[in-house]
Amino acid sequence: MQTSKRFLLDDFVAGWIGGASSVVVGHPLDTVKTRLQAGKGYKSTLHCVLTIYRKETVMGFFKGMSFPLASITVYNSVVFGFFSNTQRLISKYRYGDGRHPCGMLDLTVASMLTGLMSVGLGAPVDLVKIRLQMQTQTVLAENLHLAGNVSNGTNIPLRSVSIPSQRLYRGPLHCISSILQTEGLQGLYRGAGAMILRDVPGYTLYFIPYTIFCNLLKPDATSSPHPCSIWLAGGLAGSISWVTATPADVVKSRMQADAQLQRKYKGILHCIIHSYKTEGAQVFFRGASVNAIRGFPMSATMFLTYELSLQFFRSL
């Protein structure tokens, strides 16, 4: 990351631009990842992709993108701005100069603090995105057990009950409003604990590898990395971060998609135990291949756009 003499807003603006570009690139695979982790009936990644395309056309892959596009741009702006300026504050505190290059320990502290901070803003964003992405899922049988009974106790075969194709949420704002009405403010932060378990180590394994790869790909210590090096370093860092974060991401996605009146999961530990007992240890790596593939272009685009935007702003 480039440094500056003063606390700058450049990092926030560059992060905003990078966030917007990464959402457009990564949202289709993010939809596939969410359906694999929290949905039912998908045999493989390819089967999931083909099912979405056949039932919902290409637009199905971009379901719920308007909210991330508007919000994740702000989220990434805050993340990159916070991370860069935290590095400056650490350098100023430890070395007396905010321009002093950070060591690995400094970068680790800055990354972990960034991951912790990101949950406050990112948890509601992720929750709304996942609820919108999951709208076309087949309604689970446990949600319909009352549909087979009438007041006189006569059972109606479930197959005879006509279920209208009706969406629970009309859009992001309606989703937020519905969650606040039915679950309260804490409902927007469902899965936040799992998100902390994902993002604190996740951001550490995001920024650290990026810095290492950039330094390795530079021709010498004093030169700036080439755009191709930034793109490659960012992509590799994104894949590493997302693959290692997959188990916690599975738990987070399941808890956030759990919008039943009678919840399936009581908490993080219950979600982990229940998922393990019913689907085995492999469930925690569901979507790992999608995360690895998706993480590369998203992060490569993010870092490249961020760094080029930063260079442009500081050349003015």
Automatic annotation (TrEMBL):
Keywords for this protein: Membrane, Mitochondrion, Mitochondrion inner membrane, Repeat, Transmembrane, Transmembrane helix, Transport
GO cellular component: mitochondrial inner membrane
SUPFAM superfamilies: Mitochondrial carrier
Listed Pfam families: Mito_carr
Membrane topology of this protein: Multi-pass membrane protein
Gene Ontology terms, MF aspect: transmembrane transporter activity
Main localization category: mitochondrion
Solcar repeats by residue range: 6-89, 102-216, 225-312
Coiled-coil segments on the chain, per record: none
InterPro entries on file: MCP (IPR002067), MCP_dom_sf (IPR023395), MCP_transmembrane (IPR018108), Mitochondrial_Carrier (IPR050567)
Family: Belongs to the mitochondrial carrier (TC 2.A.29) family.
Designated name of the protein: Solute carrier family 25 member 48
